[in-house]
Specification:
The complex is a heterodimer of chains A (354) and B (257). With 354 residues, chain A is α/β, with parallel strands linked by helices. Chain A is 43% helix and 17% strand. Chain A has two domains: 213 residues, D-Maltodextrin-Binding Protein, domain 2 (3-Layer(aba) Sandwich); 96 residues, Periplasmic binding protein-like II (D-Maltodextrin-Binding Protein, domain 2, 3-Layer(aba) Sandwich). Chain A contains 15 helices and twelve strands. The termini of chain A are far apart. Chain B has a single domain, classed as Orthogonal Bundle (MetI-like fold), CATH 1.10.3720.10. The two termini of chain B are 19 Å apart. Chain B is globular, with a radius of gyration of 22 Å. In chain B, helix 4 runs parallel beside helix 7, helix 4 packs antiparallel against helix 9 and helix 6 crosses helix 7. The chains are: A alpha/beta (354), B mainly alpha (257). Chains A and B meet through helix 1, helix 4, helix 7 and helix 8 of A and helix 4, helix 6 and helix 10 of B.
């Protein structure tokens, strides 16, 4: 068959048409299908009356998000929670500003920054406690941060509490802010950069510290709990519109997250097994974070207090990350936190082995 | 006869290079010349490749990426080529529009990411928008340049034949620039395929580029490698398809064969 312009254009249109059909499956399209797309597990309560999508990143600080997703589909719940995995915080922020998602996990100073910029968000709960380490190379002789003077260290974002924590430690040890050279790196690249010698150390949330330990390329210099007891990294951030329009859903959400945390605290191996397919991470790494040491992470006492967030806020202002302090009464909403928190009724033996 | 033989065995040379590269990769990881965290082994990549295929994710990601690239590229071709033809023929509009077109051409699609989400939210639309922004300006400008470069003699002859408007466009201008337009389509299509990784950072939940970001976050470089292989392979295949355009009868004369 001879190729002509007309035939070529028909071919292109046919190609795009077929790809479009394969992409959207118009013959099976129903609302339920769209909702289910991207969910890892489907349970008996997949038919709850209402649903909400919550954003998260594959970090252990956000572990309760997929657990709540799973629990809402396998246990009794009025709301079906779908967890939407993001790849970085700037995208999460844009999605929040565009109101594509109205609830998400987020690093605390970034939530304060959003509030400062006039995006009406509130912190309703916390992600977890601790869960952050300062890492150095395995063969490093450093025994304190003072030994890192003149070296290069990576932070995940200027708006991370990790950044604030390491500056607090520098102050405690009498170091000046420019004694250590800081670079911002995406957390997944930190273990490899450390191993390759591009940086001398880093501070970040899990599982990016455990990865370097497991690979045999890094060791822990400080646990967060050594520097800042009950360290807070991320919080559950909810848009005020959602709080005003659907308070019952927010109530369900905070209860779900709280119950998931209570469950994860005591079912750590199961939590790693459950979260691995959501995170698309190696279960071994998650297992290590959750089980190797109790100093690493904790999923209880997740009610934010005014004092601890005020402290973060004050330090962020002092460091020039934020322009002015945000009143805690505007930032925090503890209204939805349940009085008594029971562990989520997840049946461990039913968690699929993927 | 000799020519035919050359064609029949022509595939041997490139296949040999590909096999040699694979062998090199295998040897580098087999003898641990670089540690595994710096370069996943072919075996690991193959394993994760199988994993992704059986989970159905790879198929879904390929369709998603093909859809975004095809739509984004089709929109810029449908708008950009006619615009380029028009600007190319009108010196005044060329003077007026060229600086602006050039300005946008130099903006990396990465710079548009925050706006892509704000304006088009999450899903296919922001990615298509970024692919459009990456391909529209180079395609328009190269079409315009091609038109501006047509020898004046063509138009003088056309005037003798009394060609005007549509006839002039379809009988003289378009055939004269088609070879260059096809080349620039190949080039800009290549840009689109390169940009897909960046474009799918934008709140997408599937796609080959998203697969790479996701594998990175999941600390699974072996998956990232298998996705890179797929992106490269598909790019080559589609480039071959577009290059078929050069076999169009009214294009051949442009190539002096």
């Amino acid at each position: 068959m001879k190729l002509t312009m007309g035939r070529f254009i028909i071919g292109v249109v046919l190609f795009i048409g077929i790809i479009g059909l394969l992409r959207f499956h118009p013959w099976t399209k129903t609302k339920a299908d769209t909702d289910k797309k991207g969910t890892v597990h489907e349970g008996p309560k997949g038919d709850a009356g209402q649903s909400l999508t919550i954003g998260y990143l594959p970090v252990t600080c956000h572990l309760t998000c997929p657990v709540t997703d799973y629990a809402s589909k396998t246990t009794k719940s009025n709301t079906n929670f779908n967890s939407q995995r993001f790849t970085d915080f700037p995208t999460v922020v844009s999605a929040m500003e565009a109101k594509q998602i109205q609830a998400t996990f987020m690093i605390v100073p970034l939530a304060m920054k959003l509030r400062e910029e006039g995006v009406p968000v509130k912190i309703c709960y916390l992600g977890h406690r601790d869960g952050t380490e300062i890492m150095v190379r395995k063969d490093s002789k450093a025994s304190s941060l003072r030994d890192m003077k003149g070296k290069t260290m990576a932070i995940p974002s200027p708006y991370s509490n990790q950044n604030i924590m390491i500056h607090k430690l520098m102050q405690d040890q009498g170091l000046k802010p420019d004694d250590i050279n800081f670079v911002v790196l995406p957390p997944p690249d930190m273990p490899t950069s450390l191993a390759a010698g591009a940086i001398d150390g880093y501070v970040v949330g899990e599982p990016f510290c455990a990865k370097a330990e497991l690979d045999g390329t890094g060791r822990v210099l400080y646990y967060a709990s050594d520097i800042w007891p009950d360290f807070v990294s991320c919080a559950l951030v909810v848009h005020e519109d959602l709080i005003n329009e659907r308070p019952d859903v927010v109530k369900d959400l905070v209860r779900g997250i709280a119950q998931s945390g209570k469950w994860a605290e005591t079912h750590r191996a199961d939590a790693a097994k459950l979260a691995a397919p959501y995170f698309r991470q190696d279960r071994k790494v998650l297992d290590y974070v959750l089980n190797s040491s109790t100093k690493r992470v904790s999923y209880v006492q997740l009610t934010p207090t005014d004092e601890e967030l005020q402290r973060i806020d004050d330090m962020a202002v002092k460091m020039g990350i934020l322009k002015r302090t945000v009143p805690m009464s505007e930032l925090i909403d503890r209204e939805f936190i349940p009085h008594d928190i029971e562990a989520a009724a997840i049946e461990s033996d039913k968690i699929p082995d993927k | 006869m000799k020519q035919q033989q050359k064609n029949r065995f022509g595939f041997l040379l490139p296949t040999g290079v590909v096999l040699a590269l694979l062998l090199l990769w295998f040897l580098v990881s087999f003898f641990k010349l670089v540690p595994a965290y710096q370069l996943p082994s072919p075996a690991d990549a193959l394993k994760s490749f199988k994993e992704e295929i059986f989970a159905g994710r790879l198929y879904n990601d390929i369709i998603a990426s093909l859809w975004r690239v095809s739509v984004g590229f089709a929109i810029s071709a449908v708008l950009g080529i006619p615009l380029g033809l028009w600007i190319g023929q009108h010196a005044a509009s060329r003077r007026a529009l060229l600086p602006v077109l050039n300005f946008f051409r130099f903006l990396s699609p990465l710079a548009w990411i925050p706006f892509a989400i704000l304006w088009f939210h999450i899903g296919d639309k922001p990615a298509v928008f970024l692919l459009f922004m990456a391909t529209f300006f180079p395609l328009t400008i190269s079409t315009m340049t091609a038109v501006a470069g047509i020898p004046n003699i063509y138009f003088r002859v056309a005037r003798d034949y009394n060609y005007r408007g549509w006839e002039l466009l379809s009988k003289v201008t378009f055939p004269a620039v088609l070879p260059q337009v096809i080349t620039s389509m190949r080039v800009t299509y290549g840009i689109a395929w390169v940009v897909i990784v960046a474009a799918e950072m934008v709140g997408c939940q599937d796609g080959l580029g998203y697969g790479i970001w996701d594998a990175r976050n999941g600390l699974r470089l072996d998956i990232a490698v298998s996705y890179m292989l797929v992106i490269g392979l598909l790019g080559v295949i589609i480039d071959r398809l577009i290059s078929q355009l050069t076999k169009l009868p009214n294009v051949r004369w442009g190539y002096e064969r």
